[in-house]
Amino acid sequence: MRLKVNLSPVGSGLSVDDSIDLYCGQGEQILQWVGYASCSRLAYKRGDVYGRYIPQSITTKDGQPLDVDIVINELFGDGDELYVEYSNGPMPFRIRWEGRPRTPPFKWGEAGEELPPHDTWLRELDLVQEGIMSLIDTTVFATNGISEDLEVVKDVLMRNAGAMQMVFYFQSSEGASNGDQLGQITLPQFRGIMIQAKVITTRFPAEKVDEIFTSVVTSEQALARKVESKSGVSTFDLMDFTIAIIHVAAQRYAAMSPAEAGKASMVPLQTKMDELFKNCFDVYLFPELQKRLDRFSAAVSNPAAQLLLKRGRKLVEQTLDSCQLKRVKSSVVKVDLRWLCNHLQRWNLLNKDFNLQELALIAVFAKQTSTDPHRFILHPHPLDYNYSEFERLLLGMAWHIYVTKKKGEAFEEYLGEMLDTIFKKAGILVEVVKDKQDVDE
Known about the structure:
This protein starts with a strand and ends with a helix. It is an alpha+beta fold. β1 and β2 form a beta hairpin. The relative contact order is 0.09. It has a four-stranded mixed β-sheet, covered by helices on one side. A two-stranded antiparallel ribbon has the order 5-6. A two-stranded antiparallel sheet has the order 7-8. The protein folds into three domains: 2-87, Ubiquitin-like (UB roll); 120-293, no CATH class; 302-425. The chain contains 19 helices and eight strands. The radius of gyration is 25 Å and the shape is flat. α5 (161-171) runs antiparallel to α16, α9 packs across α11 (269-293) and α17 (387-404) crosses α18 (411-425).
């Protein structure tokens, strides 16, 4: 296998300094090797000492940093092109790729290392730094009153974090054409959430929602995050979405009471947040999501189907193993839903028996054990699926097909047939063809 590697200094916007052809045999090395080998070749070509250049990222032509622990031939073929960003070091691979875990602060207890909660990013969210102070009249509230107000606003976000996270990822499938688009929402998708929640009214029109989207996505903090993650500047990530909800709450409260517009500035921001959830999300958005998820309850409560899954647990685990990108071995197997979409297409399920939007609903069902959004858990990696979640995903897919296609047999029979087909297409089960001589005998 030969790769064309373009070498680019960090911070140059992927402007090419030099290019090399890198031969890598069958491509069984991990991407880290590409970075170090390319930088060594660059130093040799320039007459510099070995180690003069240190790789900082392996990047696609679109500028997306890649997980450097993935095996080369999982992502690239012969003749493909990629970019290696380099610097003078001293530390390698400082540029983050999506899903790369952050090194937690070291804290030790009696049982060993204690890791911080996965919702630390929300607990430590600096609303002042995110520009929320512009929504509060500082001439009305004392400094300590503002701090208390912002803390309660954060509490409201914490209470609803699991539900809003699932709404965000579910909505990211609306209008999407492939799995890679999951996890980011566009302006029309954001507007769609506000329409479903009946946030948009004649007094608070869609144009106001669009303005909020634009102001948040182009804010200094949002742009800084997107530079670090190299994500699209015209889409929301979950953090942007969270900040935008606060803006919607503040502006909608003032718009819905025009006669008392002057008094709106005297109302705490926490009250405006409570009103948004109580009058919109809790009334329209969450119940509709729960109603759609409740349809899977019959599959969960089917004893025969649960027994079948229990018996086939090892095969389900092996199937998820087969979907995992070859990479440095990790202790816990998790596969990204966006990558799973490729396998679901190979198994003739996605875009045949269900579309991406229907899959997104099934994915929510698989990720949450409750159908009540108020009881949803905030997940650290909402698009990653472990063995148990993958099993629920398969169950949800089978139930969806069973109901929509109006299958005549019992559900557990159809579930067994579907699992058998998936196991064979994934190469976990191999049909044994009897020898003609054995048949004659």
